[in-house]
## 1
Amino acid sequence: MTAVIYARYSCDNQREESIDGQIRECTEFAERSGISVLRCYCDRALSAKTDNRPQFLEMIRDAEKNQFDMIIVWKLDRFARNRYDSARYKALLKKHNVKVVSATEHISEGSEGILLESILEGYAEFYSAELSEKVIRGMKENLLNGKFNGGALAIGYKISEERMVKDEFTAPYVLEAFKMYGNGYSIHEIQKYLNDRGVLQHNGKPVSYSTVGRMLKNRRYLGEITFRETTVPNAIEPIVTPELFEKVQNKLALNKHAPGRNKAKEEYILTTKFYCGQCGAYMVGESGRNQQGVVHRYYKCTFKKNKHGDCSSKAIRKDDIENLVISKTLKMLQDEKTVDAIVAMIMSLQTRENTTLPLLEKQLSETETAIKNIMIAIEQGILNKTTKTRVSELEALRDDLESRIKNEKLSQPAIDEAFIRKFLSQFTSCDKPTVPQKKQLIETFINSIYLFDDKLVITYNYMEQQETVLLDDLKKSIFLIRFSPNERYPNLSYNEGLVWISFILGQNQNLALVRSFIDTEVAYAVC
C-alpha cells in the first residue's frame, strides 16, 4: 500500500511541534504496517470545522488522480470535525479506493458518528440514484429522437442543430485511419499520420495513442448510438462501412495482449479494520499456491510478515473470516430491538451534530426582534439618521442569515426515520450480499476485529458492542458446511466422519486420506 500523511493543528496556541509529533507517530505506524509514505500534507492554525484548508484540498485533488491508497491521520478529528464534511469527503475518497485511517485509534473514534456518516453517504447515493433515473430517462428520449446527449464528441463528427453530423473536414481522415490499420499499419503510425495533418481532438489537443485505439473500436463510425442498454442503428451518418469495421476488429483482436496490470485484483474487505490480537498490527492480505497450483488467500499480521519483531500469530483463511464476520453482522441487524436502538441513536445524534444551524436561527430571531423594536420606535415618532442606518444594517444582516440558514439546511440534510430503516433493511433483504454490499456492511457497522490464537473479538459501531467468537467454533462450522462423505462410505454420518478424521490426524497426519472425506480447502483448515 501507498499512503500520505495529513497533519493539522487548529489554533495559534498550538505550536509547530504538534505537527512534528503527528507526522512522527503516523510514520511509525506506516513502518509497522509495511505502508510506503509518499508525502505529507500539513495545515497550520486551521480548524477542521471547515474544509477551506489549502493542503487538505490539494490532498483530495491528488486522491482523485489515484496517486495513493490511504490517508493516515494522527487521530480522526484531524481529518474533519464537521460530520457532514467528513461523510462527503470520505464518500468521494471511497470512489477512488482511498481509505482514511488513524495511527493512534485502533477502535475508531465515535462509533455512533460513523453510523451517521454511513447513513449520510447512503442518503446522498439514494438522492443521486433518484436524480440519475430522471436524467437517464431524458437522455434516452434524446437518443430515440436522434439528439446529441453531450459528452466527448468523436473525431469526424460535429454538432448541428442538437444533432451529430459528419464533419466534412475530419471524416475523411477517420476513414483513412481505419483503412491504414486494416492494411497493416500500427497505431503509432496512424497517430503520426493524423497529427502530421493537423487533426485535433475536440478539446484542441493532438491525437494521442489511446485516442486512436478508442477510435478504431468506436461503433459510432458505423452510425450506431448506444446509451446504456439501448442501441439505435443508423442514428447518425456512418463514416466506415461494416466490412471495413469488421476487418479492423479482427485485426485488433489478433494483436490484443493482456498485460498483468489488468488482471482482476482480489479484494480483502477487512483491511484497515482487522488487527492482530498479539501485537496490534494490521492483518493484511496474502496469497500463495500449493503443489497442485490452487491459490489460497489469507490474512496475515504485517508485523510478522515484514519481520519487524516477534509475533507468533497465525494466518487465517480469507473467505472463512470474511464470511464469519458478515454472517455475525447480518445476524445483529436481523434483531428488531437492535434496529430500533440504532435508529433512535442516529436520530438523536443528527440533532446534536448540527451546532451551526441553531446558532444562526438564534441570531436571526434576535435580528428580527431588533428590527421589530425599531419599527415600534418609528411608529412612536422616534426617527433620525442613525435609526434609518441601523434598520438598513439589520435588514441586510437578516437577509444574510436567512441565506446562510438555507445553505446550511441544504448541505446538512435532515434524514427521517423511514429512510434510516430502509437503508438498514438493504443488508438483510438479500440472500447473498454482493461484494460492494459486503464492503458497505463492514465500513458501516464494524469498528474493529482482533484475532487471537483461540478467539476473534468483533467490535461493532452500535454502541461499541462486542462479540467474541471462539476459533474452534469457526472450524466446526466450516466442517459442517463442506464435509462430504467418501463414495466408499456413503452412509457415513457426520459424527463418524469426525471420529475418522480425529483418528487419521492423531495417528499419521495422512492428508491424502483426510482429503478422501473432506475437500482440499477444509483439509488445510482442519490441519
## 2
Amino acid sequence: MERPERLDLQSADGAQLNLDALYQIAPSCFTEATDPKTGKIKRVVNFDLLRQLLGDDTVEDATEAYEFNWVGKQEAHAEVLRPINKTLRPVKKDSVDWDNTQNLYIEGDNLEVLKLLQKSYLGKVKMIYIDPPYNTGNDFVYHDDSSRSQEEEDLAAGNIDELGNRYRKNTDSNGRFHSEWCSMIYARLMVARSLLTEDGVIFISIGVEELATLKNICNEVFGENNFVEVFSWVKTSTPPSLAVKSRKTNEYILCYEKNKNNIKYNGELLDGGDQPLLNTGNAESVLTFPKDKVIFKPKAFPNGVYEPYCKDRVSLLDRIEIIDGKATTDFRLKGEFKWTQSFFDEEVKNGTTFIIKTDNLSVRFIREGEGYKRPTNFIKEKITSPVIDKPGVGVGTNETASSYLTSLMDGKNVFSYPKPVSLIKYLTNFICKDSDIVMDFFSGSGTTADAVWRYNVENKEVALKYILVQLPENLDENLKTADANSKELLLNGIQLLDRINKPHKLTELAKYRLAKTIDSIKQDNPDCQMDLGFRVFRIDESNFEDVERTPKEYNQDQLDLFLNNVKSDRTDLDLLFGCMLDWGVKLSLPMSSEEVDGKMIYTVNEGDLVACFAEKVTDSVVKAMADKQPLRVIFRDSCFEQDADKINIYETFKQLLDWSDKDVEKNIRVI
C-alpha cells in the first residue's frame, strides 16, 4: 500500500484549473509526460493535436488582431495562475454565532483570498456584487507588481502597510494610471469567474471614468456573448450645483453571466401579474396550502386568529393564526379550483406562490418568474418593490445610504459614498433563491451582508449566504493623503474605534456595522430564527515552517522542523481550517469536537472531514474517528511515534470502514 498523500498546503494552481477545464472539452488533445520537477508522470497538452482540433481558427504572432491590451497585462495574467502559500486563520472572538452561522467575513488582500477559496468554492457562488475603486485619482488601488522583490516593495513608500498588504492611492500623475487599475481588476475578475456557478451572475458598480475600460476587460474575462446589461443607477438626488461641465446623477452597474442562459430576471412586480386559482363552473374541491407559500394581505388579514368560515365561493376549513401576512400552520380551502391537489403540489415544488388579497378568500397564484417585469436598465430613485409582501420601498441613493449608516454607527458618518442596502437587495432578487451564496470581495462597509440578511427577512422561503472580503486598510495611513471630506470621515471612524477599543482598520468598522445590523434586525423581528451571524477569517502566512532546504543549508538546530513543522503560534482550529481550504471543504460547514483519551477530535459536517492533531493517538481515538464514517481524515505527523504506527492506523480504518488500499490513499492525509 502506498502512503496517503500530503495536502498541497497552498492555493489552487490556476494553470492546472485551466488544464482541467480544457480536458473536459478536449481530452483527445492530452497526452502524458514526465514532470522534470517531480519525476512523476503527468497529463499535458499536445499543441499539435489541439491545433488540428481547432482547424483554421487559430492564430500565432498575428500582426493585427482585435484585442484590448495595456502595460502589465502579461504579468497580471501570470499572477492569476501563480499559487500562493498562505492560509485563512479563524478569528473566533470577532465572529458572531460562530457555531451556527454559514456566513463568512474574510480580512485580507482579495486576490489572495480568492485564490485560497478556489478549492472550496469553485463553481459554488451564485452572485457576485462588487463596488471596486473607480480610479478617480483619489481612491486606493491594490498594487500587484510581483516582478519586484519584497525588499523593493518595502522601500516603495506608501505601497505597503504593516501587515504586508500592498495598496496605494492611484493618482493621475502616475505614468501607469490606467494600466495599474486594469491589472488590478483583471486579475481579480479572472479568479472570481471560476467561483461562479454555471448560471451565476456578476454585478460591478463603476463610475464613468473606467466604464468603457471595465467593459473591455469583462468582455475578455467573461466573454462578449455573456454580457447582459449596463444598468444605470441614480446615485444622488442632489448633484453638485457647481459642476463645470455636467451634474452627475448616475453611476453604472455592469452585468455579465458566466454562461448566458434563458433565466428571466425578477424586476418590478407586475400590476395584476397574479392569476386566479378559482374557475367558476368547476366542481368544488379541497386544496391543502403550505403555510410558507401563501401571503395574506395585512389590510384584509391583520394579525390574529381566524376561525373556519365561508364567504362568496370559498371556505376556510381550518382554524388559523396569521402573523405578518403568513399563516403559522398549513391550512385547507374549499372552492371551485382549477387544479387538483397533485397538480397544485407540483406547482408548489416548481416555485409557485399564492396571494389572498381580500377576506372573500379569492386565492391567486404567481408562477416563479412570471409575476415580475424584467428590470429596466434605468434604476430610478423610486421603483416598485420586487418584494411581494411589502409596499413600494424604492431603491435609495448615496444620501439615503449615508443617513442609514450614520444611524447604525452611533450617529457618526464614517463611510464614503456607500451603496444603499435597497440597491443590492434589488439586484439580489434578479437571480438568487433558496440557499445561494452571494459574494462581495470589495465589501467596504459591509452593505452586501446587510442586504442579504434583510432580503432573507423579507423572503422567508430563502436562506441566502454571503462571503465578504475586505483589505484591513489602515485608517491612520489613509488619513495622511486624504482630502478634506475623506479626512472628516476617517477621523469619525478613528474616534468610534477608540471608543470601542478596536484597531484603526476599515474591517473593524465594517464588523461593528454588521453587529449593529444584527441588533437592528432582531429588534424589528424579535421572533426571527434566521442565520444572523458571521465567521471571521484573516489571511496569514502558511501554518507551516518552510523546510524546503538543500542538504548544505541544514544545521542541527533545524532538524526538529522535520518532526514538527507547525508554527508555534498556530492552534488546532488554524490547522483544521487550513486543511479544509486545502482539501476543498467549505469554511461555513458546522463542526463539533470531542475528547477521547485526552486527545481532541474535530468533526466537520458530521463526517465530511474528521481530524486529530494531538501527539501519539491511541487505538480508542482512531476507533472514535472511524465511528463517524468520515469521508476525509486528517492527522499530523506528530500523531505517530514511528512509521509502524501509521501503518497500524491505516489498517484499522480499512477494517472498521471496509476500505481498500485505494480508499486509504484517497481519504487520509497527513500534514
